[in-house]
Amino acid sequence: MFKSLLLKGRTMCLIVLCTLSSLVVTAQTKITGKVIGADDKQPVIGATVKIKGTNTGVVTDVNGNFVLSGKVGYVLTITYIGYQPKTVTVTSSDLGTITLDVTKSTLNEVVVTGYTTQVKKDITGAVATVDMTDAKKITASTAEQVLQGQAAGVTVINQGLPGASSSVFVRGITNFGNAQPLYVIDGVQTGSMSFLNPNDIESISVLKDAGSAAIYGVSGGNGVIVITTKKGKAGKTVLNYDAYVGDQVPLGGNVWHLMSPTQQSQLVFQANDAGQETLYPGGPGTLPTYGYHGPSVPGFGAAGVTNDPTIVNFYHFDEVNPGNDFLVQKFNQQGTDWFHEIFKHALEQSHTVTASGGSDKNTYLYSLQYLNQQGTLLESFEKRYQARINN
């Protein structure tokens, strides 16, 4: 009787465990869907699909499709630049087609184009605008670095030396000649923007098509970057302080893949056909502790080389016959990492103070910047004091 109850109890436990395991297995399922844009009905590539309240998410593929592990009842958040975020509640494993609405606010932005301004939605030429809100999140010591990755079709090649200006290409690197664009800062044409304080920039527009040449002539053939600086606004005086401090870190490890002294000895041994003369005695890949050289007696020795009777006669300084002097040198067994001897961690800091205000008849803006950028290469740096007055 007892055995029968025990067997029945075990059977019930197995049934319960199997049921629970099946629930665990079926709790998570694959959720699929497709994301398209409301403006052109085309797939949105690279849209982020994320489970709300978690860090779990995926991006859509080249066809706008996505596959995500989840379950019914989850809320998905779908975002993409230029479109309004959308939330979708999972009601089944296949969500079908999800349409994202265009962000209309960006179409009403005023863009500076040449000698005038236009509403963004009315522009027919190839014009890119830089979102200064996002650009300010990037640490930039020069104004060109603000353009890095902020405008489609604009390539910025930064130099490693502190204070060095960057190379900017509006339509790619098309030739080996002068491909630098024209810069127009507050209506004044110039060949560079590196002297600007990045914190003083209000807006940046990039004119990429041939229409820019119709305004600026041949000087705008490589594209035009139109920059508007900040100006004061009527009202009480407003003080702003902007600063950042950062650490620049050189590349780690064996950057140039250089051989150690032991590896060099091994290479020489291999180059001599593994049986001929070696660089050092003692076999391949070995290094003696000391090397010495007298008037005509070079040689190698271990740690006790200074007690070697064959070279004791060289242990003196002969003022009359300097050629009799003897040089002994301890070998560097590990080698010297010259890259990290001359490239070190470097501090970079920037401080900007701005005062702005005015009345309905006059506005003003005063800014003062201090920049101290130490280079990772020893004895390389840039210190800049910059003042700007707009009245």
Biggest pleated sheet: 5 strands, mixed
Helix content: 10-25%
Write down the oligomeric state.
single chain
Class from secondary-structure proportions: mainly beta
Number of strands: 23
List the helices and strands in order.
HEEEEEEEEEEHEEEEEHEEHEEEHEEE
- Which regions contain 5 or more consecutive residues with pLDDT less than 50? 18-26, 119-124
> What distance separates the N and C termini?
102 Å
Separate helix tally? 5
* Overall form: extended
The main sheet orders its strands as 10-15-16-13-14
Mean pLDDT: 77
β-sheet strand percentage: 25-35%
The whole-angstrom Rg is 35 Å
In short:
The chain has helices at residues 2-27, 132-135, 211-216, 261-271, 338-342; strands at residues 29-37, 48-51, 57-59, 65-70, 75-79, 86-89, 94-100, 110-113, 116-119, 127-129, 155-157, 167-169, 182-185, 188-190, 201-207, 224-229, 235-248, 290-293, 298-301, 327-330, 346-358, 363-374, 381-390. By secondary structure, the chain is mostly beta strands. It is extended and about 90 Å long.
Structure, explained:
- This protein is mainly beta and 391 residues long.
- Helix content is 13%, strand content 35%.
- The protein is built from 5 helices and 23 strands.
- The chain has helices at 2-27, 132-135, 211-216, 261-271, 338-342, and strands at residues 29-37, 48-51, 57-59, 65-70, 75-79, 86-89, 94-100, 110-113, 116-119, 127-129, 155-157, 167-169, 182-185, 188-190, 201-207, 224-229, 235-248, 290-293, 298-301, 327-330, 346-358, 363-374, 381-390.
- The strands form 7 sheets. It has a 5-stranded mixed beta sheet with strand order 10-15-16-13-14. Strands 3-2-5-6 form a 4-stranded antiparallel beta sheet, with no helix packed on it.
- A hairpin with a 2-residue loop joins strand 8 and strand 9.
- The longest helix is centred in the first third of the chain and has 26 residues, at 2-27.
- The protein starts with a helix and ends with a strand.
